Amino acid sequence: MCSNNRGITLLSLPGKVSSGVLERRVRRIVEPRIQEEQCGFHPGCGTVDQLYPLSRFLRVLWGVLREYGVSGPLIRAVRSLYDRCQSLVHLAGSKSNSFPMMWSSWRDLQRSPDWFAAACEAAGIKISTSKSEAMVLNRKKVECLLRVKVEEFKYLGVLFTSEGRMEQDIDRRIGASSAVIRTLNRSVVVKRELSQKAKLSIYRSIFVPTLTYGHELWVMTERTRSRVQVAEMSFLRRVAGLSLRDRVRSSAICEEHELEPLLLRIERSQIGWLGHLVRMPPGEMFRACPSGEDPGHIGETMSLDWSWNSWGYPRTS
To answer: Which residues does 139 contact at the CB level (< 8 Å), separation at least 6?
Structure first.
């Protein structure tokens, strides 16, 4: 049985109208006090706003140095301060094993958990140990004494890895879409009794969301573009009753069914997401993520250019 269940309440029609009026009045009072991190309770924001900062941390920080004109050797030297800094404890003539040192002194290292615990307590936050996992965002393997340590974890339906890359989540999305094809193949996709209009409706409502969830975070490399197109056409060719042996171009199949190519749809959605970032007020946390800095200190152009580069688009003047 689920340990996190909640009961539901069924309201009458007058009760629904009354609760809607109360909700709108309470929202006007409460909404200004909701923190920006609680995207699900802000108008115009959603889960992608939460996923975006997490996906950019590792990728953006070193890119900011490149934007400032810092050369590759200097960046590698700076990274070595974080990647190769180790220390050990000398006590009673014995030495401990070397361990990574991420703070300037052992006092700060010891105090950091206390600071974190104090901040959580002040905010009324309590960590659920039964639901928590630990993942180290580091490409160098280190030993961890935490009870549960993982190399990847799923957050709001998107898979994040300790290396900070999205390729595994893209592969997982493609695998999930292939599972949809296998499940619906006989009962829907190749069933002659169903019209193509009904099949395409299932394609839009089930297959596409399964394949493209979280695509705003993807970097569209040639490998990713090729794999997404293969997954898309695998479904559409079955709907059209064709195979690769028929040598019919993918563009012809999309034109016949009046469908927009999925890659074009993804690119348009990513550009729309970029516009969503640009339209945010200057103090928003999520708008600062493309450059890794406060937008008040770095110009909008830099944030915009870095967002395009991080998505894999060529930078334009």
So the answer is: 83, 162, 163
E-strand ranges in the chain read 86-87, 90-91, 94-95, 99-100, 152-155, 158-161
Instruction: Please say whether the beta carbons of 153 and 137 come within 8 A.
Output: no
pTM of the model: 0.53
pLDDT tens-digit map of 74-91: 877 777 766 656 667 666
Q: Where are the domains of the chain?
A: 165-287
| Closest-CA residue to 166 (of 44, 48, 76, 9) | 48
Question: What DSSP line would sit under 101-156, residue for residue?
Answer: --SSSHHHHHHHHHHHHHHHHHTT----TTT--B----SS-----SSSB-SEEEET
Average pLDDT of the chain is 74
What is the C-alpha separation between 222 and 119, in angstroms, rounded? 44
